[in-house]
Each structure stands twice: as structure tokens, then as C-alpha cells.
Write a structure and sequence with these properties.
8% of the residues lie in helices and 45% in strands. It has 175 residues and is mainly β. The chain has one domain (33-160). A seven-stranded antiparallel β-sheet has the order 2-1-7-6-5-4-3, with no helix packed on it. A hairpin with a 2-residue loop joins strand 3 (93-102) and strand 4. The longest helix has 14 residues, at 9-22.
């Protein structure tokens, strides 16, 4: 039996604080929290093609090569979801079949039209913060002719800043 009269007040206070902390989650510093939405801007994107296999009797119809890394600068447009240009070949026209990108998590599925070839279907899964992202992709193609392929990639991005203004674009008047 505990006799509270004989216990020291500081000991009771320490005991109460310990009990209160048992079920509490550790606070997260706001400085480390990822932004609520995927950041727009200019990105340096490094793409490592881990695997690439032809799915028919022809060579894969892609610019990527198994084991190779490519680096590109991409200006990602603002919006509620990441710009597909960060994850697909230049020229592909994509719409999101499924798109989740919030609070540091990215899970996307795109349906892309590759002009003159057919459909490319990338899925993307990974994480992001205010200045970087890292995702794994799985890509399958559904072309009208030969050149179909399946591919996996690791894509990393580093945000360089805002996109450079486009030459000849209208600027809002000052004042």
C-alpha cells in the first residue's frame, strides 16, 4: 500500500509526468515535416533504370537502357499532384488514373500516350520533402506495334528552386 502522506511531492509529479507520456506520441519538429503537397519548381531528376525487358520480339521502344542513369532538369508545374514530367519520358502525354501525394508520400498511376506508339502505364511509389524526392517506378507499355517493354526504375529528385521564366511570357504589371 502506498502512503501518499509520506511521499515527496516532486516524486509524485515525476510519476504523473511519466504516466502522461506513456501514451503520447513524440512531437515532430515542424522543420522536418514535409509540405502538404508536392513542391513545384525546377528539379534535377536522376533516373536509374534497374531492369528493362522487351515484351515482344522487338527492341524496347524507350530511350532508357538497363543499368544506365540519366539526369535531366525538369520544370514541374504547380498543382495538387506531382507533374508527370518528373517521372515519364519527354513527350508522353499523361493523365492520372490514381494519384496520392500528401504529407511526404507519393503513390501514383498514370496512363500516358506516347505519340506514334501507344500507351505507357507507369506506377510510382515513394516519398518527398520540401527539397527532394525518391520513388520506385514500374512501367509497362501497350503499343499498337512492336517495342513493348516492362521496366523498373529508381528516380531521385533535388529541387533547385523556382522555374526560370519562359522567354516571351507575359509578366504582370508592377504596382
Amino acid at each position: 500500500m502506498i502512503h501518499f502522506r509520506k511521499m515527496n511531492i516532486p516524486v509524485l509529479a515525476a510519476f504523473a509526468v511519466t504516466l502522461a507520456a506513456c501514451g503520447a506520441e513524440a512531437p515532430v519538429a515542424k522543420d522536418n515535416a514535409p509540405p502538404a503537397t508536392f513542391p513545384a519548381g525546377e528539379w534535377e531528376v536522376s533516373t536509374l533504370t534497374e531492369t528493362l525487358k522487351g515484351a515482344d520480339r522487338d527492341a524496347p521502344a524507350t530511350i532508357h537502357k538497363a543499368g544506365a542513369t540519366s539526369v535531366a532538369k525538369v520544370c514541374a508545374a504547380p498543382g495538387p499532384k506531382p507533374d508527370p514530367a518528373l517521372f515519364v519520358e519527354a513527350g508522353d502525354k499523361c493523365t492520372a488514373d490514381a494519384a496520392y501525394a500528401r504529407n511526404g508520400r507519393v503513390n501514383l498511376a498514370y496512363k500516358c500516350d506516347r505519340p506514334g506508339k501507344g500507351m505507357v502505364m507507369p506506377t510510382i511509389d515513394g516519398k518527398y520533402d520540401a527539397t527532394t524526392f525518391e520513388v520506385a517506378t514500374a512501367v509497362g507499355s501497350y503499343f499498337t506495334g512492336l517495342g513493348d517493354y516492362v521496366m523498373t526504375q529508381r528516380i531521385k529528385g533535388k529541387r533547385l528552386g523556382d522555374c526560370a521564366p519562359v522567354a516571351g511570357a507575359a509578366t504582370p504589371p508592377a504596382g
